[in-house]
């Protein structure tokens, strides 16, 4: 066993630097960019370039590592290796000029997809043409264990140095910068972790074919963690599948995540136990491997139904398209391992890498397919409402368009803008969307004075412009989960009651005023006011009900009852309707103060609750209506 020495450490470090020169340069570049981003509080443009460099460094490290492994496995000459690696470096720099994960939502997704594809590429880059599946498994086993070890060492090193910094600050009263710990983690995770991991990457690929050692810890982890988790998943999912067949109902959208979870645990388990699958002591492993793929087939049918039902109804989104292609890939892998006698596990990362690249760029990418799918649905809505002519979207008639169609259209427009398809909608508008986008981006920010316009603010400006162009300003879109966009049309009617005398509260005839709490935000809230040594206890019992206690006497105010009585008299209420800002589902009324005044008497006190503003929802799908917001004031007379 070699003892630690500085010479050995220096020799090992130089060896890593020589073997993985480009990889270390990319890691160093990423650390510097991350440090500058942490210290710099610039605008949107500066942050955008910092994130570009960080993303490029990540992808560059992975791509250059893949190229290095491939070059070593092919035993290319030194000059050829350098040319190939320089070419890889040039490709990454070129990609950084176009990829903007901070400024574009689609590029953010592309970055993670490319990162996943390059991680997969690292796993098989050295085994594309030769060496057996055994050598491939041993190589990736070494990478997997080295990765876990480097993560553990990095965490321990960070905690140790962070504790030392904390002790120095405490003992010597030295005030460290608030970003000290962030920068410390950047350099430990970015440089130390990378150097340590790369030092453990195997070199002699041909020798790995004859290596048959199997770590006991890996066996225990697979047998007692991964496989039991996969079994639990499959029992739950098969039970759920039986339930929906018996009840004959569509599966929930979230079931797709559970099926992918089962597939992930199962495939990882099958890969980790691959070398011992044919040994006499572990015949059950072969049975598990085969049964895993057999049980995956009915779950894939459930996955296709869950995705297909939503695609038919709402169209493709990036998430649904990715799920669909992953489902087809899982079906292909399952049939291959059930039918093929060769059982080549290299096919798993190679085929998945190709699928991920297919999803990322090109006419069959998730972004292209989802854009065309959503615009098709949008055009159908406008055609149905006679607002589509000469391949152009025109203003809708708010009197004739249905509430569901209007909100559905706004939901799709919101999706397209948020997913960087604003300028892609150019064929459907006569205005130059490119110029408009630039003009909106250079307008002063209303959210962050002194800084550039943020991505969220810019997207909000684009959406509001589109809504105004299409006469959809009064609609806000349907309620949906952003990842699946499972649209749930809101069948409720919303009322907004405003005191026309708000701001000029008439307190004649009363001695004191005190505010009432917003009971939509604070149900059960209690507070106290003391006036002339008398305690006024204000309490919100439930939504819509107030309780005021004075000298032990309790006065109840049922606001909901008052509002319901107003709604039940639509003819008299319509006299105060704000026609300029209201529609059939969002009704606004400007009422005199006396219409929003509730007066009660208790002993020697006269108490009034003056409502200044109140938002109310009448639900068709729920029995109970609800107060969403209230601004009210107590008036007290002794």
Report on this model:
The chain is of the alpha+beta class and 638 residues long. It folds into 4 domains: 1-213, no CATH class; 217-360, no CATH class; 366-469, no CATH class; 493-637, no CATH class. It is built from 19 helices and 12 strands. It has helices at 6-19, 21-39, 44-73, 78-98, 105-124, 133-172, 180-199, 205-208, 216-247, 255-272, 283-314, 318-339, 347-360, 366-384, 403-418, 433-441, 455-469, 559-567, 570-573; strands spanning 388-389, 392-393, 493-499, 512-515, 526-531, 534-542, 545-550, 553-558, 586-591, 597-602, 605-618, 626-637. The longest helix is centred in the N-terminal third of the chain and has 40 residues, at 133-172. It is globular, with a radius of gyration of 32 Å. Residues 479-489 have low confidence and may be disordered.
How many individual β-strands? 12
Q: Return the domain count.
A: 4
Average pLDDT = 83
What structural class do the secondary elements suggest? alpha+beta
Task: Give the low-confidence spans.
Answer: 479-489
Q: Largest sheet, if any?
A: 6 strands, mixed
What is the helix content? 55-70%
Radius of gyration: 32 Å
Straight-line N-to-C gap: 92 Å
Task: State the helix count.
Answer: 19
Taken as a percent bin, the fraction of beta residues is 5-15%
So what's the overall shape?
globular
**For this entry, what is the oligomeric state of its chains?**
single chain
């Amino acid at each position: 066993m070699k003892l630690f020495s500085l010479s050995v450490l220096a020799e090992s470090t130089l060896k890593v630097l020589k073997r993985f020169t480009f990889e270390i340069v990319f890691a160093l570049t990423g650390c510097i960019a991350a440090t500058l981003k942490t210290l710099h509080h610039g605008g949107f443009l500066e942050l955008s370039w910092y994130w570009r460099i960080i993303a490029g460094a990540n992808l560059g490290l992975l791509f250059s590592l893949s190229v290095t492994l491939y070059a070593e496995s092919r035993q290319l000459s030194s000059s050829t290796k350098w040319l190939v690696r320089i070419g890889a470096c040039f490709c990454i720099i070129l990609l950084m000029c176009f990829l903007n994960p901070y400024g574009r939502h689609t590029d953010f997704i592309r970055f993670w997809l490319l990162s996943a594809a390059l991680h997969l590429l690292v796993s098989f880059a050295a085994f594309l043409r030769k060496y057996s599946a055994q050598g491939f498994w041993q190589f990736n086993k070494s990478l997997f264990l080295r990765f876990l070890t480097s993560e553990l060492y990095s965490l321990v090193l960070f905690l140790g140095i962070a504790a030392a910094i904390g002790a120095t600050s405490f003992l010597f009263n030295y005030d460290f910068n608030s970003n000290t710990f962030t920068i410390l983690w950047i350099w430990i995770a970015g440089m130390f972790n990378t150097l340590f991991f790369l030092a453990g990457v195997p070199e002699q690929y041909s020798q790995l074919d004859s290596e048959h050692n199997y770590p006991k810890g890996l066996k225990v982890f697979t047998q007692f963690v991964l496989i039991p988790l996969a079994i639990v998943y499959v029992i739950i999912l098969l039970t759920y599948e039986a339930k929906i067949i018996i009840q004959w109902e569509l599966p929930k959208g979230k079931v797709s995540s559970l099926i992918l979870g089962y597939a992930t645990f199962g495939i990882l388990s099958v890969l980790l136990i691959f070398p011992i699958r044919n040994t006499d002591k572990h015949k059950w492993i072969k049975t598990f491997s085969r049964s895993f793929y057999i049980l995956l087939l009915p779950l894939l049918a459930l996955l296709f139904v869950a995705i297909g039902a939503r695609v038919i109804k709402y169209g493709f989104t990036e998430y649904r398209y990715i799920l669909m292609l992953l489902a087809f890939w899982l079906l292909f892998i399952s049939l291959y391992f059930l039918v093929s006698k060769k059982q080549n596990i290299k096919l798993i990362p190679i085929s998945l890498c190709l699928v991920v690249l297919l999803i990322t760029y090109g006419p069959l990418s998730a972004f292209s397919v989802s854009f065309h799918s959503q615009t098709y649905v949008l055009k159908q809505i406008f055609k149905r409402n006679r607002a589509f002519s000469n391949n152009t979207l025109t203003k809708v008639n708010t009197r004739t368009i249905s509430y569901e169609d209007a909100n559905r259209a706004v939901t799709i427009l919101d999706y397209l803008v948020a997913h960087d398809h604003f300028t892609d909608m150019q064929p459907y508008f006569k205005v130059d969307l490119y110029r408009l986008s630039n003009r909106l981006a250079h307008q002063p920010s209303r959210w962050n004075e002194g800084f550039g316009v943020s991505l969220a603010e810019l997207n909000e400006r684009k959406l509001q412009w589109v809504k105004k162009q299409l006469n959809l300003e009064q609609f806000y879109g349907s309620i949906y989960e952003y990842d699946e966009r499972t649209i749930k049309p809101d069948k409720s009617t919303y009322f907004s009651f405003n005191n026309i005398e708000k701001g000029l509260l008439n307190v004649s005839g009363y001695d004191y005023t005190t505010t009432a709490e917003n009971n939509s935000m604070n149900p059960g809230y209690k507070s106290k006011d003391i006036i002339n040594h008398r305690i006024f206890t204000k309490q919100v019992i439930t939504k819509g009900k107030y309780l005021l206690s004075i000298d032990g006497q309790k006065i109840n105010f049922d606001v909901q009852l008052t509002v319901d009585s107003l709604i039940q008299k639509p003819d008299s209420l319509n006299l105060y309707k704000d026609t300029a800002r209201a529609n059939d589902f969002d009704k606004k009324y400007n009422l005199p103060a006396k219409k929003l005044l509730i007066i009660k008497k208790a002993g020697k006190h006269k108490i009034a609750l003056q409502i200044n503003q109140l938002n109310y929802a009448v639900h068709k799908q729920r029995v109970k209506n609800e107060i969403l917001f209230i601004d009210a004031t107590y008036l007290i007379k002794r």
